[in-house]
Amino acid sequence: MTSRLKSAVAFLAATVGFGAVASQAQAQIFQDNSITYSYGTKFHEPYNPKDITKSWVSYLHVDGDKWGGNFFLLDAKFSDNKDPTPGGLGAQELYGIYIRTFSYNKLTGSKGGFGPIADFGWTVGGHANAKNDTFGSEKRLLTSGLYLDWAVPAGSRLRTSFEVCREWNRSNFSSSQDADFHPTFCFNSSWGVPFKVAHVPMEFAGFYGIVAPKGENTVTEHYLGLNLMADVGEALGARKGLLEVGIRYDYWLNKFGNDSGGAAGSGAFDRVPMLQVRTHF
C-alpha cells in the first residue's frame, strides 16, 4: 500500500472511529449495506479534456441509532489510460466519505416536527482520497453544520444541510503543489422517491452539492448526481434489494473548484451518463 493510500485510510479510520463510538453508545435501530458497480465513458479531469472511461465499485453503509445515524461510502475507481499514472497505465483512486448526524427528535424524544421540517440536527464528517495519477490528489476535508429533514410523503426522503468545510489537498495553483484551503461554505442536499412501474419497484434518488470558493484561485463548484434504479430482483420474486439495475447521471461544474472557463478547460466539467448494478445485504 502506498503512503498516500495509507494516509487516506488512516484519516477515514479516525473519522469512522468517531462514529463507531457514538453508535456503540446507543443500540442501532436499523442498518443497510450495499455494493454498487458503476460504468461510464465520458469522465474528465481538470487540465485533461479527453473522454475517460471509469469503473467504480462502491460500498455504502447507512445506519440509525438513538442519537442520529452514520453514513459511510467508499469508492474504488479505475480509469483507463487516458487518465494515466506516471507510468502510463490507467489511474486508480480511493475516495471515502463519513458523516455522523445528531438528530433533535431522537435526542429529545420529540415526534411532531416544525411545520414543513420533520427533524433537524447537527452533522459532522470528513472526506479523504488518494489517487496515483500524475497530479497525486490527497484530499482531506472536514465538514460540520446544520441539517434539515423535510416533511415529505411516507417512504420518500429529502435532506438539506448548510455546512462549514475545510480542505487540505494538492493544488495546481501553489508552487509547492500543496494547499491549505480556506474554510468555506458547503451546501448539500439528498433525496429519494420510491414508485412502481408495472409492479416493478423503482426509486428516483440523487444529491446536489455546492462548494463556495476556498482560496487558491478556486471558483464555486456544483455537483449534481441523479439515479434511477429498478429492483428487478424483487419484481422476479426475490428479496427486496437483492438486485437493482439502473442509470446514473453526474453533472459536475468547476470540478474540485477548478474554473472550467479557465486554464483547467473542459476537463473541469463532467456530464457523465452511467450504468449501475447494486445489491443490498
Characterise the protein shown here.
The protein has 281 residues and is mostly beta strands. It has one domain: Beta Barrel (Outer membrane phospholipase (ompla), Chain C). The protein contains three helices and 13 strands. It has a twelve-stranded antiparallel barrel. A hairpin with a 2-residue loop joins strand 2 and strand 3. The longest helix is centred in the first third of the chain and has 23 residues. The radius of gyration is 19 Å and the shape is globular. The mean pLDDT is 91.
CATH class: Mainly Beta
What is the name of the CATH superfamily? Nucleoside-specific channel-forming protein, Tsx-like
> Which structural class should the secondary elements be placed in?
mainly beta
* Main beta sheet: 12 strands, antiparallel, barrel
Q: Can you list the strand order of the major beta sheet? A: 1-2-3-4-5-6-7-9-10-11-12-13
